UniProtKB/TrEMBL annotation:
Belongs to the PNP/MTAP phosphorylase family. GO terms for cellular component: cytoplasm. It is an enzyme of class 2 (transferase). It comes from the Bacteria. Keywords: Glycosyltransferase, Phosphoprotein, Transferase. Pathway: Purine metabolism; purine nucleoside salvage. InterPro entries: Nucleoside_phosphorylase_d, Nucleoside_phosphorylase_sf, Pur_Nuc_Pase_Ino/Guo-sp, Purine_phosphorylase. Pfam families: PNP_UDP_1. This is Purine nucleoside phosphorylase 1. Gene3D superfamilies: Nucleoside phosphorylase domain. Its EC number is 2.4.2.1. The lineage of its organism: Bacteria, Pseudomonadati, Bacteroidota, Bacteroidia, Bacteroidales. GO terms for molecular function: purine-nucleoside phosphorylase activity.
Length: 254
């Protein structure tokens, strides 16, 4: 079977439902792809899927790679380099994240307007790839047209969405109350351990990106919280049908 996808999706923690809606699909385990890392996180299946969503050829990563797993940034973002070589034009990224905005609720879908990069290693460090400039402009890392489209679809379907800035950190510990407070005061609305390196490299390759976070826990100032990976997965599972509905329609219209 031959497909020529121009759209790719990265499905993060507990967000694999969209994969089941891909038709005419075939999957390649990561371990069978040369130079691909292997996802070690529970809830990440570790497969590259090709097929159709509606009438669009797509490529989906069911499971991603994280800096905290011990991979360096070149390994974490290797899939985006592969996407570029395959002709991907648009990348949809999803994740589970902790909310710090007091107006957020657990289960909210946060459209990412911008990000703050706190990873200790930059994914573009080293020799510059010829896919983009040495010093890429990042004023619109998340495509405004796609953000507007997501808002339009959410309004049509009566789905609550919020907007915010995503803070990318290395993990693997969840945040302390003091860290939640600091990140919020630095200008972030949600925090997570992925997405930022992937978006930077995709942007460097000229790939348009759209990001959405499921708020799976809240770390509000002066409100101590305890969170487990299992609770994050459970919250993501409850919210993912709504995220799937938005993503599916965005891919159909974009």
């Amino acid at each position: 079977m031959t497909t020529k996808p121009e759209t790719a999706i990265i499905l993060g923690t507990g967000l694999g439902q969209l994969a089941s809606e891909i038709t005419d699909s075939y999957a390649i385990p990561y371990q069978d792809i040369p130079h691909f890392p292997v996802s070690t996180v529970e809830g990440h299946a570790g497969k590259l899927i090709f097929g159709k969503l509606g009438d669009k050829d797509i490529m989906a990563m069911e499971g991603r790679f994280h800096y905290y797993e011990g991979y360096d940034m070149k390994q974490v973002t290797f899939p985006e380099r592969v996407m570029y070589e395959l002709g991907i034009k648009t990348l949809f990224v999803s994740n589970a994240s902790g909310g710090m905005n007091p107006n957020f609720n657990i289960g909210d879908l946060m459209i990412i307007d911008d990000h703050i990069n706190l990873f200790p290693e930059h994914p573009l460090r080293g020799k510059n790839f010829p896919t983009g400039p040495r010093f890429p402009d990042m004023h619109e890392a998340y495509d405004r047209r796609l953000i507007a489209l997501a808002d339009e679809i959410a309004a049509e379907k009566g789905i609550r969405v919020v907007h915010g800035v995503y803070m990318g950190v290395q993990g693997p510990t969840f945040e302390t109350p003091a860290e939640y407070k600091m990140y919020h005061r630095m200008g972030a609305d949600a925090v997570g351990m992925s997405t930022v390196p992937e978006v930077i490299v995709a942007h460097h390759c000229g790939i348009k990106t759209f990001g959405i976070s499921i708020i799976t826990d809240l770390g509000l100032e002066d409100t101590p919280v305890e969170v487990s990976h299992e609770e994050v997965q459970e919250a993501a599972n409850h919210a993912q049908p709504l995220m799937t509905e938005i993503m599916r329609e965005m891919i159909r219209r974009s």
